[in-house]
Inverse folding.
């Protein structure tokens, strides 16, 4: 699991933690074609599978760095996964989690 830590970043938000994809994660995975994300209201546990991504170089399960309830899913991911492949890592976020 420790090698996956380089795949994501976390940032404090007003009501919890935002989880996103790092540049290093983008480089390791290649172009992301699909991501299976949790839904708003889902409970997640630290270390459990947060999401599954399918990319050029790998299909990966990414563990959650936090425990809590999903309060938001990046709306840009509803139509395409381009933001996960771009150079703006602040736009390459998956979910917001309100920590327990």
């Amino acid at each position: 699991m420790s090698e996956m830590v380089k795949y994501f970043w976390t940032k404090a938000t007003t009501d919890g933690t935002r989880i996103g994809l790092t540049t290093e994660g983008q480089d390791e995975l290649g172009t992301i074609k699909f991501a299976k994300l949790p839904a708003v209201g889902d409970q997640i546990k630290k270390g459990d599978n947060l999401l599954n991504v399918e990319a050029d170089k790998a299909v990966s399960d990414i563990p959650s760095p936090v425990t809590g309830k999903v309060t938001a899913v990046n709306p840009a991911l509803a139509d395409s996964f381009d933001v996960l492949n771009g150079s703006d890592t602040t736009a390459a976020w998956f979910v917001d989690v309100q920590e327990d």
